Amino acid sequence: MNFTLGFRPPLGEPSAMENLARQLVCPICLEMFTKPVVILPCQHNLCRKCANDVFQASNPLWQSRGPTSMSTGGRFRCPSCRHEVVLDRHGVYGLQRNLLVENIIDIYKQESNRSLNPKVAEHQEQQVMCEEHEEEKLNIYCLSCETPTCSMCKVFGAHKECEVAPLPSVYKRQKTELSDGIAVLVAGNDRTQALISQMEDICRTIEENGRRQKQVLSDKFDFLYAILEERRKDMVENIAREQDEKLRHVRALIRRHGDHLEVAVKLVETAIQSMEEPQMAVFLQNAKDVFKKITDTAKASRMERTEAGYESMAHFIIDIDDIVDVLRTINFQTGSQGEESDEEVEGVDPAPSSVVDSVPGRP
């Protein structure tokens, strides 16, 4: 059912009264505040009935106030700014009334009634008219077609076979249902926000646990590096020590054989000079000494050598195949040990004892 508006406000900027009316709308029922009006700690205002609907939806187990019942407090979030409102056992009846807003509402209604004459008021009452029966206003609601209609449409028109109800009653009922739906949405938003906050806490905990376990893993690998470095230094020192001993021995032999060679060269020169002596008596006298020196030099010329393979360092060999296999299979604990660790950790992982303290050479 289409309908037309019989009254259109003049174009232009809104008046001061219209601006004031917008400030007096409850964010729950979307109507002007209904007294009593309560003010929340965040300084936003609600109808007390609307505030109670939201509070009841957020706290379904909260007992209604009665002469003999004992109630506990509860909480809900402001529909305007999402600020959490904590209430005591009195519920919304413990909130302070905003008398200033209530007085402004009374003044606004008085000024509105004074500015509207009966003719304008009657015109506004009839502003929504039936499109098919232009002189009939929309005063009933077709429950079958779910649309407003007029009495003529029900008696003679397209809705004569439909089930109808008075427009004000349907209006109030749907207004109430919409208000309840808003309250349910607000309560659902509160639960969703709480879940989001919980998930954000879990994300922060995961990041902290991951950072801590990375540090623990790095410390343990540093510990392994330190052990390997220490063994490398010890084994390199063993090789260097034997290398120095062998070099000292061979170099001593070189010096010894060098001295012998120098003596032998000089003796050869002396023998050659003796061979050039023309006098036989002198030659024979000198030859005796030369023969004796040659004999002594020959006795001292026993060539001391190093044994075969003396220069080899091949005995400094290590087999790391098994160690490499073990290192390649390093992984996190699984099975019973991992399960026990998981049972001990709740929330933030406990800070494990650092292995850095046991690294040799570290303070």
Q: Can you walk through the features of this model?
A:
The chain contains nine helices and ten strands. With 363 residues, the chain is mainly alpha-helical. 54% of the residues lie in helices and 9% in strands. Helix 2 crosses helix 6 and helix 6 packs antiparallel against helix 7. The protein has a three-stranded antiparallel β-sheet with strand order 3-2-6. It has a three-stranded antiparallel β-sheet with strand order 9-8-10. A two-stranded antiparallel ribbon has the order 1-7. 11% of the residues are buried.
Give a quick precis of the structure:
The chain has 363 residues and is mainly alpha-helical. It contains 9 helices and 10 strands.
